[in-house]
Design goal:
Blueprint lengths: L2 H10 L3 E6 L2 H4 L9 E3 L18 E9 L3 E10 L6 E5 L16 E8 L2 E7 L2 H11 L8 E2 L10 H13 L7 H15 L4 H6 L1 H23 L11 H33 L5 E2 L11 E3 L2 H5 L9 E6 L19 E5 L6 H9 L2 E5 L16 E2 H11 L2
Parallel strand pairs: 3-7, 11-12, 12-13, 13-14
Antiparallel strand pairs: 1-6, 1-8, 2-5, 3-4, 4-5, 6-7, 9-10, 10-11
Length: 389
């Protein structure tokens, strides 16, 4: 069994589990407090019976088995004295391998097996991280906290009502990913009465809300479609495996196109001129080209007004794929939901003229000294708008 399979099994079989992207603040790269994993305040049920109280510190020691390989006696601690108000996981012993700068951007999973015993896993590759998200049916926006149980409904009642009405209109089991993205977005916008001006003024917030809404719709659709299937025993292990693989592959396929669909809508609302999946050199198809392929192939068109944007939910491994997608465009932009990337990788991206674009809420997950080189979505839109004047 692979590490990601063990991590999935551990999280699914635990009474409570937690996930987060490892950030510079965890490794001590920011120069703040001592190294140790920072845990979101909402995660206190993972290790305490009650929430920490300001003005006091409290801790809990437990054995943690890492990667199904070695154990540490570590300390969950709440710092509430003075100006501090945070939870951390510390004390891993000498030569602990998962608190280096190269681990920034990796996914940490902690599963509670008993009050004094936990299992923890660190996933590094994009494929492993996406496999974990698909198996647990969560998105990258749902990290840095307790992993919701499959039976939990996290969306507001009015949003769920819209989802259920939509599902009743379907004549197929699972519609195309574009339709799921569009329908979930419409439900969210109607349920929360979001205006066009709100989307234009805060695209960074809205795209994350759209992604969350789509995941909620997809969960609701899955629960509806597989309700009868999971009630009855499978006739053989092979049938079980085939069904499970079908479910997981559909999840991964949808997630892979989801971000692209929502970005496309943001660009439309922002009234930008762009094209998707057009062919450049060597039959390459960049996700987004601004303004269009005619301008790209026009040798007299100012190259400074050509913009390429690739979209990848995670990019620790895959960012290099975009380097030869458009030879005329020196700087390649890459929108990602990756939270945190090591300094070494950021330096390499800079060397190859790749500029990251991330939601504003994720900017703080990157090392302080590199944030000025990273665009938030709002600033990217303004940049493209400036090239189209």
């Amino acid at each position: 069994m692979s590490i990601v399979e063990k991590a999935i099994q551990s999280a699914q079989e635990s009474e409570i589990a937690f996930s987060k992207f490892i950030k510079p603040n965890d490794t001590g790269a920011t120069g703040g407090h001592q190294a140790g994993f920072h845990l979101h305040k909402s995660s206190w049920p993972l290790f305490f019976d009650a929430e920490g109280e300001k003005g006091t510190n409290k801790d809990h020691f437990a054995t943690i088995k890492w990667q199904d390989d070695f154990e540490t006696t570590s300390r969950f601690i709440y710092y509430g004295r003075g100006t501090r108000n945070e939870y951390r996981l510390t004390r891993f012993g000498k030569n602990f391998p998962y608190l280096t700068d190269d681990n920034v951007g990796d996914l940490l999973i902690i599963s509670k097996k008993s009050i004094d015993y936990y299992e923890a896993f660190v996933l590094s590759s994009d494929d492993d991280i996406e496999d974990f998200f698909a198996a647990l049916n969560i998105s990258s926006t749902e990290t840095n906290g307790i992993i919701p149980k499959q039976s939990e409904q996290t969306a507001e009642d009015n949003l769920i009502t819209c989802f259920l009405k939509y599902i009743k209109t379907l004549t197929v089991d699972f519609p195309p990913t574009l339709e799921i993205a569009s329908s979930s977005r419409k439900c969210y916008i109607n349920a929360y009465d979001v205006t066009i001006n709100q989307i234009k003024s805060n695209p960074d917030r809205e795209i994350l809300k759209w992604l969350e809404a789509e995941y909620d719709l997809f969960k609701t659709l899955e629960n509806d479609r597989y309700a009868e299937l999971i009630k009855n025993p499978f006739p053989s292990v092979e049938d079980l495996v085939v069904s499970a693989n079908t479910i997981l592959n559909r999840r991964k396929s949808r997630a892979g196109k989801s971000l692209e669909h929502h970005l496309e809508e943001i660009f439309r609302i922002s009234e930008l001129i762009f094209q998707t999946q057009v062919v450049t050199e060597n039959n390459k198809k960049p996700d987004f080209l601004f303004p269009n392929i005619e301008a790209y192939h026009d040798s007299t068109f100012d190259e400074k007004k050509l913009v390429l944007l690739a979209s990848k939910t995670t990019c620790k491994d895959r960012w290099r794929q975009i380097l030869n997608e458009a030879d005329r465009i020196r700087t390649k932009h890459l929108f990602t939901l990756q939270q945190g990337i090591s300094k070494n990788q950021l330096e390499e991206m800079k060397k190859y003229n790749v500029q990251l674009v991330v939601p504003k809420a994720y900017l703080s997950s990157f090392p302080q000294e590199y944030r000025s080189d990273i665009l938030i979505l709002e600033h990217f839109l303004n940049f493209v708008r400036g090239t189209q004047k």
